[in-house]
């Protein structure tokens, strides 16, 4: 079976698995940095966690761009990075908002409680990030070019002539033609 001929559920499953692999690495980095900062510095818990989240965001960008979404459109890197940072900032607010609420709202500030609410915050933020990254940041290349090229190659290899198929995107109304010059009339 060709890599491009798999079904949409298999492609999504593969994407989720790759996203998860990068996410695991980012989560390990996030937990390692935050716990080091919590135990070795006098930074407030949420500030230390913000720093850890920023470090993890940097690791995640590299993983997403060069592993999970390496086959996606690379034509607008500045826009991609800007959107990635914007959506990552929203994820950072979600993750650290949960931790902030636990510590300052409920007084749950032990090391174990911080880590439990960090996991909860990362989980909620991850759902948002997966949706936003795949929808807005790492856009898929148009599939019809790939499908047409595969279809042509298969038809040529088999020696079959395929009947043209009308595309759903084809306009229902014919485009207007440019006006033609009128023939000169002779008046007598």
Q: How does this model look, in words?
A:
The termini are far apart. The protein is elongated. The protein has helices at residues 8-40, 45-68, 77-106, 111-137, 143-158. The chain is mainly alpha-helical. The longest helix has 33 residues, at 8-40.
Radius of gyration: 26 Å
Computed structural class: mainly alpha
Note the gap between the termini: 76 Å
State the oligomer. single chain
Shape: elongated
Q: Helix proportion of residues, in percent?
A: 55-70%
Largest sheet: none
The number of helices is 5
Strand percent estimate? under 5%
Low-confidence stretches: 149-168
Mean pLDDT rating: 82
The total of beta strands comes to 0
The topology string of helices and strands comes to: HHHHH
List the helices and strands and how they pair.
Blueprint: H1 8-40, H2 45-68, H3 77-106, H4 111-137, H5 143-158
Helix pairs in contact: 1-2, 1-4, 2-3, 3-4
Short account of what is shown:
This protein is mainly alpha-helical and 188 residues long. It has helices spanning 8-40, 45-68, 77-106, 111-137, 143-158.
Keywords:
188 residues, elongated, mainly alpha
């Amino acid at each position: 079976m060709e890599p491009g001929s798999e079904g949409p559920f298999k492609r999504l499953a593969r994407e989720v698995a790759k996203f998860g692999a990068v996410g695991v690495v980012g989560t390990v980095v996030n937990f390692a940095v935050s716990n080091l900062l919590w135990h070795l510095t006098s930074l407030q818990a949420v500030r230390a966690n913000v720093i850890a989240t920023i470090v993890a965001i940097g690791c995640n960008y590299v993983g997403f761009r060069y592993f999970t979404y390496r086959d996606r459109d690379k034509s607008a890197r500045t826009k991609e990075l800007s959107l990635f940072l914007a959506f990552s900032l929203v994820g950072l607010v979600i993750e650290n908002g949960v931790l902030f609420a636990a510590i300052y709202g409920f007084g749950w500030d032990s090391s174990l409680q911080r880590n439990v609410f960090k996991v909860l915050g990362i989980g909620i933020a991850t759902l948002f990030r997966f949706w936003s990254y795949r929808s807005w940041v790492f856009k898929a290349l148009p599939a019809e070019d790939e499908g047409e090229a595969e279809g042509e190659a298969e038809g040529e290899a088999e020696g079959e002539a395929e009947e043209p198929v009308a595309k759903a995107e084809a306009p229902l109304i014919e485009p207007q033609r440019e006006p033609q010059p009128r023939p000169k009339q002779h008046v007598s």
